[in-house]
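Journal club side-thread
Mid-discussion, someone asked how the predicted structure for our own chain would compare to the paper's figures. Pasting it here so we can look after the session.
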Amino acid sequence: MAIAAGVPRPRTWIVPDDDPNAFATGHDPSDSHVAVTRGLLRLCTRDELQAVIGHELGHVKNLDVRLMTTLAALVGAILLVRDGVGRMMRMGSFPVRGGGGGGGRSKSKNAGPLLAILLALWVISWLVAPLISQLLTLAVSRRREYLADAMSAQFTRNPLALASALEKIEAVICNEQCGDERMVAIRHGA
């Protein structure tokens, strides 16, 4: 699959977990890792597993881990700024000095415009920025998943294998959450 994807062979891992899952990590293709769980190995056929690995290699090839790390850092930075400004507003500790020369000007008069700007920034960051950044992250994440799906179909030339694997994974999740009987049929090859 690495040859089909045009990336160096990633280090592979088997996670001792019964839930079917797979993921890729690494900053770039040269230091990438792909992991699959025991549950996925038990659940999928060879073609389905190949399609899932193709999907993960699509993430590796497109540098999705780097992109999502950058977006997470952006969301974190916005939240830090919001919390910092909020603390400054609560404590009243602004880095504002009174006017020089002792002309009788008070600190509060000089801080008025700065306080208004900080208040506006704080309100915007409190309400709008986290929402926008999280929506951006969700939108980018969903698009990257679709792109990785398409790349899996391109690498394997078998889009139905990925569809079949995803149906099986969904059935397991539904069985665990809803007690669905479809998983019994899947385990018995129906």
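Post-session note: The mean pLDDT is 83.
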